[in-house]
Amino acid sequence: MAIALTIEQAWIDAERHRQAGDLGAAERAYRSLLDQDPGLTDVWITLGNLLRRTRRPAEAERCHRAALNLEPQNELALLNLGNALFDQQRTAEAAQAYRQTLQRNPRCAEAHNNLGRAVLRADPAGALNNFVAALQLRSDYFEAAEGAGLALYGEARWEEAQLAFRRALQLRPDAVVSRVMLGRALLANGQIEDAAQVFEELERDSPGQPAALAGSAAVLARRGADEQALEKFAASLAADPRDDWARFEQSVLRLARGEYGEAWSDYDRSRLNRRVEAERRRDITSPQWSGEPLAGKTLLVTAEQGVGDEIMFASILPELIAAAGECIIECDARLATLYNRSFPEAIILGVDRTPAASSWWHKALPAALPRLPPADFWSPIGSLPRYRRADAAAFPKHSGYLVPDPDRVRHWQNVLAEPGAGLRVGVSWRGGTNTTNRSARSLELRQLAPLLGLAGVQFISLQHGDCAAELQQFTAESGTVIRSWPGITDDFDEYAALIASLDVVVTVCSAVVHLAGALEKPAWVLTPAAPEWRYGRSGESMIWYPSVRLFRQTPGTNWEAVIAEVAGRVAGFRP
Question: Under CATH, what is the fold of the domain 191-274?
């Protein structure tokens, strides 16, 4: 009985020290208790949590494991073991601990939330489910509301992410991460002025806050105030050099201005750091290529980003294939046939990169590696410019590097050569995805009426996706027929043959630009006032494609003037 009383009093003393903030005295008291009785599960857990507070997660882990040795089913010990593992960035092990906690108590909101945090980067959709479950159990759970915003942001669901961050800010108005991410979600959705307000308020409330500076810099870049933007990016990165979002935004601004060199290295590092490791490296053990001589060597080039990016960066492949002993190219499966014909000296590995395969496409290459020649080096395709496009002079004035099927080109020429059919003009009016600023890169067909109403012109749809109802409605309203072949854009080899058979292409900023430019087909691009970096900041030319001409929207105006100019060019065009 005396021992029990001593333990009880020691526990009271330890708790008193902890609540008073004297964590050193509390730790000594908890350890003294455990010296008297190592079987005190609750004391192991409490000591572990104290050690986490003092940033000693490895010691905290040992405490929680000691508690589990005593009580393997202890829900609290499992939950806090997960927290200690998470603090050590052992996220897979942490996730397993949280799952085991939920097996014992499916209504543990903290386990749902923490599991969401553990899997957030690798699996935003799965993380979202956990954050939603946590919020269903606790509607005022700030961390879960913010986590839901981060998961939705990771899935490029910008408007839903905004709602989640606003909910988080209702619960905790001064939450910096939620304020920053709300601004970024607004910016990604093209809501530049709303984003500007968020970042301006954050700068006012937290002067010098790096993420606020970076956000304001990104707003300035989209407004065309380049010098001010670069100053703010520099200040932001000086304060927080690890901010890959800021570094990426700065790099693409510099690339848009034609300031290559160091901008490529920043683009490379920040882009890859934001990717999941399994997707980025694909279990490749070879060193990443950093410009070494390739004579007699095998280079493996991996796919990344969108299909348009793949085509654009593929302009570098011919010179690498010529320099290397052997070249293996992973690409979107929709490009494989076209690439096999265009790069016959290379080994082409096509992988399914459609949205349905988004969670597993990166596993195809690791499975294929045993059947491929061993690579001396590997490189993501988007990293190639760093070593081959150091300045504007390094961009070749190529005459096309993709080769369409000549038989299919003749087929389409015959299909389109109807008597009186007139000039053959391909049109595409929607571009981008949720992740790539679709709203700024897309038009309604009715906006193109001044172009599509031209007499003596045959218009052919190059629009990706199902647009049959849209075309039917436009024809009913305007009387203009736009010829289309549904499904052709899913087969890039056939798509390329159709484009090659046309006289000219008129398109918004989309993969059509890249395909036409890579085929050396004249392409006239309706370019928004704040386009992606690859279209540059000014001028009519596009450094990646000599056959592409840009028609730029003036800041603060609608598309009418641009469309009228393009319509006039088409009316006077002679192939």
Answer: 1.25.40
Q: For 406-571, CATH number?
A: 3.40.50.2000
Quick: pLDDT tens for 446-480: 999 999 999 989 999 999 888 888 999 989 988 88
Please give the span between the terminal C-alpha atoms of the chain, in angstroms, as a whole number. 102
Rounded CA separation 428/504 (Å): 12
Residue 1: band (very low, low, confident or very high) from pLDDT cuts 50, 70, 90: very low
Whole-number CA gyration radius for the chain: 29
Q: Where are the domains of the chain?
A: 191-274, 280-394, 406-571
User: Which pTM was predicted?
Assistant: 0.88
Cβ-based neighbour number of residue 488 at 10 Å: 17
DSSP state of 295: T
- Give per-residue pLDDT as tens, 88-104: 999 999 999 999 999 99
Query: 22: Cβ–Cβ under 8 A, 6 or more apart, which residues?
Result: none
How much of the chain is in helix, strand and coil states, percent to nearest 5? 60, 10, 30
Contacts of 395 (CB under 8 A, 6+ apart): 389, 543, 544
Query: What is the per-residue DSSP string for 81-114?
Result: HHHHHHHTT-HHHHHHHHHHHHHH-TT-HHHHHH
